[in-house]
Amino acid sequence: MTAFVGTTAAAPGGTAPPPPPPARRRRWLPYLLLLPGGLWLLLFFVVPSVQLAGTSLYDRSGSLELGYSQAFAFGNYGDAIIAYWPHLVRSALYAGIATIICAVLGYPLAYFIAQKSGRWRNLLLVCVIAPFFTTFLVRTLAWKSILSDNGPVTGFFRSLPFFPDDFRLLATPVAVVCGLVYNFLPFMVLPLYATLERLDGRLLEAAGDLYAKPATVFRRVTLPLSMPGVIAGTLLTFIPAAGDYINAELLGTPGEYMIGNVIDSAFLVRLDYPQAAALSFLLMATILVMVFSYIRAAGTDEVV
Amino acid sequence: MRFWRWVADHWVMVVGLLVLAYLFLPIVVVFLLSVNRPANRLSYDLSPSWTLEYWADPFGAAGLGAALRVSVGIALVATLVATVLGTLMAFALARHRFRGRATTNVLIFLPMATPEVVMGSSLLALFVTLRVPLGFWTVVVAHILFCLSFVVVTVKARLAGLDPRLQEAAMDLYANEWQTFRRVTLPLVLPGIAAAALLSLSLSFDDFIITNFNSGTTVTFPMYVWGAAQRGIPREVNVVGTAVFLLAFVLVVIVQLRSRRKARYV
Amino acid sequence: MADDLVLENVTKQFGGVTAVDDLSLTVPEGSFFALLGASGCGKTTTLRMVAGLEELSSGTVRLGDRDITGLRPYKRPVNTVFQSYALFPHLTVEDNIAFGLKQRGVKDTKKKVAEMLELVQLPAFGKRKPAQLSGGQQQRIALARALVNEPKVLLLDEPLGALDLKLRRQMQIELKRIQTEVGTTFLHVTHDQEEAMWMADTVAVMTEGKIAQLGSPTDIYEFPSSPFVANFLGQSNLFAAEVSGTAGDDLLLSAHGGRFAAPSSRAHSADGRVWLGVRPEKVRLALPGEDAPAGHNQVHGVLTDTCYAGVSTEYLLKTPWGQEMSVFSANAAAGEPLQPGTEVVAHWYPPHSFVLARQSGEGDEVMRYSADPLGVAP
Q1: C150 and A CB contact within 8 Å
Q2: Pairing status of strand C297-308 against strand C312-318
Q3: How far apart are CA B103 and CA B89, in angstroms?
Q4: C361 — alpha (psi -120 to 50), left (phi > 0) or beta?
Q5: Angle at alpha carbon of residue A277, lines to A273 and A280, rounded to 5°
Q6: What is the torsional sign of CA B87, B93, B99, B104?
Q7: Which residues pair with C5 in a beta bridge?
Q8: What pLDDT shows up at residue C31?
Q9: Cβ contact A130–B245 (<8 Å)
Q10: Pair (C128, C193) in one structural domain
């Protein structure tokens, strides 16, 4: 046997020098790795969030030019709710409806890709994310063309009985929800796909073997096992949909405006920073409350 | 009745394909609009007049080329920084146990759960308070912020899927920590990092809401589209939209086909 | 010898759980040494501590005179063949094998890599990626990648676990051949008792973080030191017995009203409560009319099950005190196997017995049935 040449040279005299103490893994290394990114999040996310909380309590009689004074004006929240509660409700409603439709449309698609598509799977997945390759605004504007008063879709409905001749889709809640569904559907499909792909097809066959009808197999096996995906998908769809204002702006009228439209105009048009900040916080709070009660109801904390 | 039998057996596929068609419909419309001469400047409808003139000169619309250049510049800088910072964080979170790990995870999750309008407005408030002039660099800062979380999540997932024995094997074969990272871990995580970078690129290129709050007078491509939407959209925008789509689609399909060929041996 | 691997009082705790408990062990240089045990017995943890992948809670690991306890894995002259191989998927077979050489600054790796590929009989596979190899081929490459570094000790962590039975047999022969050829110390961790017995010069049976018995495969099989080993390595029939005296070189035992003999040299315990053990294949069956050879230990019983397995027939019989006993009978003679329900006498040559210490309480449950003379109790 060839002797190993390297670090093995034993000390003469038989007794080896005491070994170095076990190398302590470098405890500071993870902190060093986290430092730049963490600072970025701290400086540009945490600090602005805290500042926004402060801004929401400023005295509203100030202005950007003259400066605001901190008055701990909790009344700002009351004022904001009184003035804009319909927008808050509408945001939750539209986003909620859009999320449900996304789930209903997205589940069969995700199931089909995950369990039935065979060698077309990757191509179909690319097709799901394909809309992302076209700019969000351009896509949404395309819906303006599809749903326009002179377009074929509206024309089809007008030709049906029970639909008035001046029936329109554009500038209605239907158009806004349709746009929301379209824009956020991939966020529903991808997490659903991820859990359904891991679902063992033999479990479904076993359920069928044990006399379950297809509907029962779905209700008692497929759906429970894909719950993590359903939860992740609903959250990923609902959160951005509730804060969105582009669809309401482009496909709706001020009658369909959501809370995002109000925040946008309060910041950029009316320059009423305290109220805008209060509304932002209300939106955040609404979303977080819904998210956490939903997670609790669904009995999982895998999402965070 | 054979038809209904077939539908009963294949309805999942039928519904799935219909939903896919729904996803593709607007893209088709964008393409049609790019080869269609509008009846008037404000019209979103298709007219009977077809043309290739917009494809011949996509940058004919005033300001479109400049806006694209700004968008590409911002996307490149933001992607570079976010990918580096995010990858470092992902390594810390996936490879080390330390105090404050759970807090860090929440800190990374929160930006993803924050509506864009809130994130954009709070950043605007910060910049105004600090009297930072709005423009190219404030947009870059904002884009790095929202790309960062996505990079961390993507790279972390790839790292979690990595067999820890591979690193042990490298150490067993005389590679120290740094050599193990450079010769084994990094090459294996690279696809994840590339995916994260591509995601950042598209998120940044596509962003309108946060950019709108923090751009000042700088005009990105989405900002240009938004501004034009008020006065009638130049059809060249649809040319750019279609071209970007085709480019990205072909690229991804090629990558998919190549990885499938490799996967055949597994 | 100069490069024996010595573990002294090695302990490893994970949280509150002790995985390896004050273990001391010497692996002689050049030997093929197997650590055998069920999953969770601490064998893999022991191996990983030798590799440097796990820090010791206490104790020392030495290689010859050199203390390697605190050395990082990449400073140790040992290499590992990992479970599921851990071949680098992004490198070719050649680059995988050359990995360790390059790390140590060896310039000309080509020749050594080629030699190794020759040794594992895959000379034409250098340019392939691991994903293009079958399981058995990956296994050989993993072996080559470790051996090319000429380690003082080669560690094998369940290396054949992922292979199917036929391939496993083939690789066992192959591993043994390679070990003989290179002469490196092999420390092999496995849960497969046949694999350990086939290949190793020395086997250490581990349970609950300790070594239950250490010795050559024959020693351990023929003369196990505890009921655990007697049943972990193959099967044994164990009867609760008490030592009643001696006759020459033999111990006299009484069990369930019967009298038995066993050589004193095959007893781990020579007084009081003991287990009397015998391997199933050492036992013969006689019909009640036939005479068992004089001096043989005898147990009466009724056959409850007959399993014809080609080369042998495995019988289960029930003793009058309700204990089950198994007997393997080679199908060397002509004739039909005996049918269940047949009354038989099981007998064996006393030197095939072994005697183990029995704690008070152990086996008493079985003893209780001795009150049932007809042997009909469940």
Answers
A1: yes
A2: antiparallel
A3: 13
A4: left
A5: 140
A6: positive
A7: C27, C63
A8: 93
A9: yes
A10: yes
Within 8 A of C67 by CB-CB distance, chain A residues are: 16, 18-19
* A and B: number of Cβ contacts within 8 A: 240
| Among the partner residues A16, A18, A22, nearest to C65 by beta-carbon distance | A16
pLDDT in tens, C260-279: 999 999 999 888 899 999 99
Residue A187, C-beta contacts closer than 8 angstroms, at least 6 positions apart = A102, A233, A236, A237, A240
The token pair at A283 is 């939106």
Structure tokens at A166: 């001046």
Q: What are the residues whose beta carbons fall under 8 Å from the beta carbon of C167, sequence distance 6 or more?
A: C135, C136
Q: How far apart are CA A18 and CA C231, in angstroms?
A: 43
Strand C250-255 and strand C237-247: the pairing is: antiparallel
pTM > 0.90: yes or no: no
Q: And the tokens for C282?
A: 């050492």
- CA A230 – CA A298 distance, rounded (Å): 10
Burial class (CB in 10 A: 0-12, 13-18, 19+), B168: buried
Interface test with C, best of A2, A4, A24 (most C CBs within 10 A): A4
The answer for residues whose C-beta is within 8 angstroms of residue A67's C-beta and 6 or more apart is none
Residue A165 burial by Cβ neighbours in a 10 Å radius (0-12, 13-18, 19+): exposed
Closest to A249 (Cα-Cα) out of B120, B225, B245: B225
Interface of A with B in 191-220 (CB under 8 A): none
Q: Which helix (H) or strand (E) holds B242?
A: helix B236-263
What is the distance between the alpha carbons of residues C221 and C240, in angstroms, rounded to a whole number? 20
Q: What is the DSSP string of B139-165?
A: HHHHHHHHHHHHHHHHHHHHHHTS-HH
pLDDT of residue C322: 87
Q: Judged by CB atoms within 8 Å, which residues 15-74 of C form the interface with A?
A: 30, 55-56, 62-72
CATH superfamily of A49-298: MetI-like (1.10.3720.10)
Q: How far apart are the first and last CA of chain B?
A: 43
* DSSP three-state, residue C273: strand
CATH number at residue C72: 3.40.50.300
- Interface chains of chain A (3 or more CB pairs under 8 Å): B, C
- Residue B260: pLDDT band (50, 70, 90) is low
Q: Are residues C265 and C184 in the same domain?
A: no
CA–CA separation, A144 and B263 (whole Å): 42
Mean pLDDT of B118-138: 90
C147 in a structural domain = yes
Whether C131 has a pLDDT exceeding 50, the answer reads yes
Please tell me if residue A292 touches chain B, with a CB cutoff of 8 Å: no
Helix (H) or strand (E) holding A140: helix A136-146
Model pLDDT, residue B79: 96
Contacts of C158 in chain B (CB under 8 A): none
Q: Structurally, what CATH architecture does the domain formed by B63-233 represent?
A: Orthogonal Bundle (1.10)
| Cα C162 from Cα A137, distance rounded (Å) | 53
Q: Any residues with CB less than 8 A from the CB of C255 and at least 6 apart, and which? A: C239, C240, C241, C242, C276
Name residue, tokens 């001795």. Answer: C370
Query: Based on C-alpha coordinates, what's the Rg of chain C?
Result: 25
C87: containing domain: 5-222
As a whole number of angstroms, the distance between CA B7 and CA A223 comes to 22
Residue C346, beta-bridge partner list = C285, C299
What is the largest distance, in Å, between two alpha-carbon atoms of chain B? 73
Whether residue A66 lies within 8 A of chain B, CB to CB, comes out as: no
Distance CA B127, CA B132 (A): 5
**Chain B CB within 8 Å of residue A230 CB:** no
Count up the domains in chain C and report the number.
2
C99:B188 CB<8 A: no
Mean pLDDT, chain C, rounded, equals 88
